[in-house]
Amino acid sequence: MTDLDLSTLRGGLIVSCQAYPGEPMRHPETMTQIAESAVRGGAVAVRAQGIADVRLIHDRVALPQIGLWKDGDGGVFITPTLDHALAVARAGAEIVAIDGTRRERPDGLGLAETVRRLREGTGVLVMADVGSVADGLAAADAGADLVGTTLCGYTDERPRTDGPDLEVLAELVARLEVPVVAEGRVHTPAHASSCIDAGAFAVVVGTAITHPATITGWFAQAVAR
């Protein structure tokens, strides 16, 4: 059971330490070292993917962790079932991130039942990754402790904006009592600042901090003539 005080995350930066399959950095030790570096940079929490990564970061990094388990690469794949979520919690995550959209889950459980059984079984907090305002409202009704804009632009409900989806973020902030976390395409410090201005409880940044291949591509494109 977690005793995490969510207020410690308010107004802070959460660093997502993940590598894609097949990449050189796809290793728990590497992701843990990145998480340790994020601590030095001032992160208030980390977000990590995969049981081995979650477990090692839990053991070595003195920050709260949002853990998840990606299974597949389309549809509902962010901690898609209750069993995935229970495994992430047992690996040491204080917060478990799950797909919080209104789409059907692979195990057939509704979101509310998933949240209830996960919390009863482990005592962790639950972050719902959503793709729209309607998703966010439904996730809060289902009992999620936090709602994140993670999937905005990655389902068929919203266009993929150039930067974070501030429209969805601001509306969710206005309509929900639970914390709303900005996540998705936060690529610059200005983007992160705009999320806080829009009312975000906290901001997750991944690619722009922890994905060298993408960052290198940005600079390579910028200097190409």
Please tell me about this protein's structure.
This protein has one domain: Aldolase class I (TIM Barrel), CATH 3.20.20.70. The chain contains 9 helices and 8 strands. The N and C termini lie far apart (55 Å). It has 225 residues and is an alpha/beta fold. The chain has an 8-stranded parallel beta barrel, surrounded by 7 helices.
Q: Helices and strands in order, then pairings?
A:
Blueprint (H helix, E strand, L loop, with lengths): L11 E6 L10 H14 L3 E5 L1 H10 L4 E4 L13 H9 L4 E5 L11 H12 L2 E5 L3 H9 L4 E3 L17 H10 L4 E3 L6 H9 L4 E4 L1 H4 L1 H12 L2
Parallel strand pairs: 1-2, 1-8, 2-3, 3-4, 4-5, 5-6, 6-7, 7-8
Helix pairs in contact: 1-2, 3-4
Question: What is the gist of this entry?
Answer:
This protein has 225 residues and is an alpha/beta fold. Helix content is 40%, strand content 16%. It has an 8-stranded parallel barrel with strand order 1-2-3-4-5-6-7-8, surrounded by 7 helices.
Number of domains: 1
Strands in their spatial order, largest beta sheet: 1-2-3-4-5-6-7-8
What is the fold-level CATH name, i.e. the topology?
TIM Barrel
* DSSP helical segment count: 9
Q: So, the CATH homologous superfamily? A: Aldolase class I
In the CATH scheme, the class would be Alpha Beta
Q: Provide the structure class.
A: alpha/beta
The total count of strands amounts to 8
Fraction of residues in helices?
Answer: 25-40%
What would the average pLDDT be, to the nearest integer?
A: 97
| Low-confidence blocks of residues | none
> Radius of gyration from the CA trace?
16 Å
What is the chain-wise order of helices and strands? EHEHEHEHEHEHEHEHH
Provide the CATH architecture: Alpha-Beta Barrel
Biggest β-sheet description = 8 strands, parallel, barrel
Distance between the termini: 55 Å
| Strand residue percentage | 15-25%
The rough form would be described as globular
